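Private note to self, pasted from the team thread so I don't lose it. Backbone tokens:
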């Protein structure tokens, strides 16, 4: 997971959607011709496992397992690679196809100097699904900061989305402390994703809207008094107290959206992987 210094604050800076596309079908668009790089998988493999060129200069690593529809796309938290859901992949693959990938600057994917805004993050996912020919419809699973990307994709391609899961994806802080502004600057060498975190989260939150009549589950952490008292910044403590209430903002995405409150740390998928697996599979079943 991400650096513990900014773990909750970046988690709390979450949500929503951006109107960054025409709502088209990314999976059925004509794919660009690609030349696999060494060790790459070929675009169009039934279940790719390797690097795929998404444009003339950059490749992203993607891994899919299982068969069936809908396809579950799992987007890890800030700085998380495709391995962050390794405990969940086998169980989900028993029921349907599941895919994970490394974002730019992470794992086996190529670098991108950034700054990386919401349009760049969503654009990479669009191109990956298209060039790797990963079939929709999709159940999008976003963990922490990954929820911005899945929400952005859903806004751009609502007809391709069958359901969504958010794992402790919160709301942006109004006045983040200077330490967080500095830590999340895309030009900060410690910001390995070169992501413009604060702007991405503001843009995503401001663009929330209904995506469709589909199952959406919001898993929200109710933090203990001890965890809140140990938070470094006053703004962080306020956000943790209001975390469950703030995440109700996701409910606008669908009339079938529901919220589940848990008592774990922010790393829900690590503390209670079976709960996360069950939530994802419940959404998959509800789409069929």
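Design output:
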């Amino acid at each position: 997971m991400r650096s513990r210094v900014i773990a909750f604050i970046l988690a709390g800076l979450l949500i929503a959607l951006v109107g960054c596309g025409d709502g088209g079908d990314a999976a059925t668009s004509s794919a660009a011709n690609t030349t696999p790089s060494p060790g790459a998988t070929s675009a169009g493999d039934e279940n790719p496992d390797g690097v795929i060129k998404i444009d003339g200069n950059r490749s992203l690593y993607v891994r899919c397992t299982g068969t069936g529809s809908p396809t579950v796309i799992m987007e890890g938290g800030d700085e998380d690679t495709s391995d962050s859901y390794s405990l969940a992949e086998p169980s989900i693959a028993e029921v349907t196809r599941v895919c994970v990938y490394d974002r730019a600057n992470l794992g086996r994917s190529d670098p991108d100097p950034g700054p990386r805004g919401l349009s760049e993050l969503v654009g990479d996912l669009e191109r990956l699904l298209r060039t790797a020919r990963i079939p929709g419809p999709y159940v999008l699973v976003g963990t922490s900061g990954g929820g911005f990307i899945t929400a952005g994709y859903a806004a751009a391609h609502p007809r391709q989305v069958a359901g969504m899961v958010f794992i402790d994806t919160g709301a942006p802080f109004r006045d983040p402390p200077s330490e967080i502004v500095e830590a999340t600057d895309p030009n900060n060498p410690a910001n390995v994703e070169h992501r413009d975190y604060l702007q991405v989260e503001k843009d995503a939150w401001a663009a929330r809207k209904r995506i469709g009549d589909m199952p959406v589950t919001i898993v929200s952490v109710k933090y203990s008094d001890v965890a809140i008292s140990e938070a470094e910044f006053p703004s962080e403590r306020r956000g943790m107290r209001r975390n469950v209430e703030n995440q109700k903002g996701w409910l606008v995405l669908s009339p079938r959206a529901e919220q589940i409150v848990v008592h774990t740390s922010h790393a829900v998928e690590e503390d209670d992987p079976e709960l996360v697996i069950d939530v994802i599979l419940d959404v998959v079943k509800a789409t069929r």
